[in-house]
Design brief:
This protein is an alpha+beta fold and 127 residues long. The protein folds into two domains: 58 residues, Roll (2,3-Dihydroxybiphenyl 1,2-Dioxygenase, domain 1); 55 residues, 2,3-Dihydroxybiphenyl 1,2-Dioxygenase, domain 1 (Roll), CATH 3.10.180. The chain contains two helices and nine strands. The strands form two sheets. Strands 1, 2, 3, 4 and 5 form a five-stranded mixed sheet that branches. The longest helix is centred in the C-terminal third of the chain and has 13 residues.
Length: 127
């Protein structure tokens, strides 16, 4: 079995698409738009076959609150080395993405840092 994709509702479809293309090498399909429902989507594809569907629609509701809400937690990208984690962490910070943790070795053996994308979705970078 293979996980097909993960989907996120986003406020600014174009800005989030550009962010993942620029910083993570994603490629995008053509935007889908359903004029009846207002739904707009893009599929972002990454090396190795992972895909992220970013979606927007008129009736979206605000994000859950609290430090540890149930549901979606983060997207993790395996970069292949500590140096790449450090480099992309610095690049994202310089671009305005808040660093929440790291880079550091975790108790379960990962070298990682945790930041957010421009809309506050958690991104984990691992070696």
């Amino acid at each position: 079995m293979k996980l097909e994709h993960i989907a996120l509702y986003v406020e600014d479809l174009e800005a989030i698409k550009s962010f993942y293309i620029r910083h993570f090498g994603a490629t995008s399909n053509n935007k889908y738009h359903n004029p009846r429902t207002g739904l707009q989507t893009n599929f972002l594809s990454f090396d190795g076959g992972a895909r992220l569907e970013i979606m927007q629609r008129p009736e979206m509701s605000p994000r859950a609150s609290g430090e540890h809400p149930l549901g979606y937690t983060h997207i993790s990208f395996k970069l292949g080395s500590k140096e790449k984690v450090d480099q992309l962490t610095q690049e994202l910070q310089e671009g305005g993405c808040p660093l929440l943790n790291g880079p550091r070795m975790t108790g379960d053996g990962y070298y990682e840092s945790v930041l957010t994308d421009p809309e506050g979705n958690l991104i984990e970078l691992v070696a």
